[in-house]
Design goal:
Elements lengths: L10 H15 L25 E5 L3 H13 L6 E5 L17 H8 L18 E5 L7 H10 L3 E4 H9 L6 H8 L12 H8 L3 H28 L4 E5 L6
Parallel strand pairs: 1-2, 3-5, 4-5
Length: about 240
């Protein structure tokens, strides 16, 4: 959830809140608030810094800062460790401490803006792209949305069907990569094919240039099928949707 920009407040707003906090704590305090462009920021380059406030879980980060400072010819910082406050209202799947990650997690599922009408697209079905890495919960979410009445398109299933004998990518893939990728029964051996493209960007692109347009076409056919069934919402579960 940390990579979703919609769930992260703008820097100007965060800086303003911090400034308000510092002025409440001690109006005479002198301070600089700077954006961090990397994990270390000015902590490894500023010769005037003397102390770094860390928590138990960021203590190792403080040690990494001091290692970098020594490499840069700067004196080590004193590491002052503070205890983190616990959130009495945290749920079972949230962090125990008061955390912005928990706040962002609570925002997940919130409609941040109404769906935008695109005149080039039909009103129905409304197609939702569901993407993310292995273990991110795509399958569970797709199942949940399916139970609510959405038409679910599983790109993994289409990915298997596209390679099957008679499938749209079968003949082009065999022509491109040779008969050695075939099993005795004529099906494509995905492990042998995978070994041919693994670590080879050129060969991988050659394969995806064949397969992905075919899968995209199959997806469009499935969307038309959802429309024919009168479904209002269509969910496309695809790990490489953005690619």
């Amino acid at each position: 959830d940390k990579v979703l920009p919609e769930l992260i407040e703008p820097y100007e707003l965060r800086a303003a809140k911090l400034r308000e906090f510092l002025e409440d704590v001690k109006p005479s305090l002198c301070y600089d608030i700077v954006p961090l462009a990397d994990p270390f920021g000015p902590s490894v380059t500023d010769p005037d810094l003397q102390c770094l406030v860390v928590s138990e879980e960021t203590h190792r980060g403080g040690e990494a800062v001091n290692k970098k400072r020594l490499e840069n010819g700067l004196p080590e910082l004193a590491l002052y460790e503070i205890q983190l406050m616990k959130d009495p209202e945290h749920s079972q799947n949230e962090e125990e401490k008061i955390s912005s990650s928990s706040l962002r997690q609570r925002l997940l599922g919130t409609l941040l803006q109404p769906p935008r009408r695109d005149p080039a697209l039909p009103l129905r079905p409304y197609v939702i792209g569901l993407t993310g890495g292995t273990g991110s919960g795509k399958t569970s979410m797709a199942k949940f949305l399916g139970q609510l009445g959405a038409f679910v398109i599983d790109a993994d299933q289409l990915g298997h069907a596209v390679y099957a004998p008679g499938g749209p990518a079968y003949e082009p893939v065999v022509a491109a990569f040779g008969a050695e990728i075939l099993n005795k029964d004529g099906t494509i051996n995905r492990k042998v094919l995978g070994a041919k493209v693994f670590g080879n960007q050129e060969q991988l692109k050659r394969l995806t240039d064949i397969v992905w347009p075919k899968i995209a076409q199959m997806v469009k056919e499935k969307v038309r099928e959802a429309d024919a069934q009168g479904k209002a919402v269509c969910v496309l579960d695809a790990a490489v949707l953005l690619e």
